[in-house]
Amino acid sequence: MRVFVTGATGFVGSAVVRDLLDAGHQVLGLARSDASAQALTAVGAQVHRGDVEDLASLRTGVAQADGVIHTAFNHDFSRFLQNCENDRRAIEALGDALAGSDRPLVITSGVGIGGRGPGELADEDHFDAAHPNPRIASELGGQAVSARGINLSVVRLPQVHDRERQGLVTYLITTARDKGVSAYVGDGANRLAAVHRLDAAPVYRLALEKAMPGARYNAVAEEGVSARAIAEAIGRRLQMPVATLSAADAPAHFGWLAMFVSLDMMASSTLTRQRLGWRPVQTVGLVEDIEQANAFE
Question: Model pTM?
Fold first, then answer.
């Protein structure tokens, strides 16, 4: 299959590209810079010049492919609301270009969208159109595309990590270094689901190959790592104190991160494992990657 991949040189997308190529697929990767184009060529992918906010370039890329994987997302969380809305528009443009065909489209969301309530594991089958997480915009865009008969499925990501990056934890490391303390909110019992970057990639490929319209998958290896355990790992590496903060004090300490640090975003991948035959194989968990993170070097 010839697969058009957005975000093809990004943190997750680059792993998806390599996994697709290793599985015998051809890849047409979206690249907005010469450096990105060179990186794609170096691994054996073809290049489509464009930008995820240039909707015409997305449609042109789709026209050259048998299937689409959309991993691109602007992770400037200070503009999170706007970035989620931009993602919705990109998804709808990709869907427009696939109209009249059964070619599969796999999009990206977050596991938090599957959350049923405090203390409950998010799961693949739960969908709440009124979910307060702004990332619901991606799935609402996907729902609109699916309603037009497009073969769309969703991969929901937790905190994706390796030694280079650890999702939101990367920003927590920066905050701790700036503030001189590694902090968590309350008792720190709220948890974040996690997956290694190399385990997340095959979920996209398997979703594409299965091409089950309307399916949702959780790329989750660890159902939940506590905020306190994360803060303690950061404190050990930075050799600084670890402290609890009240919810009232969190905004001043964490800035834009405050909207995330108290959330309980634990999630199950039981149904994903059953439906895709996927199993995480990486032996390094989130805390281990925090302790070896390049951000400390």
Answer: 0.95
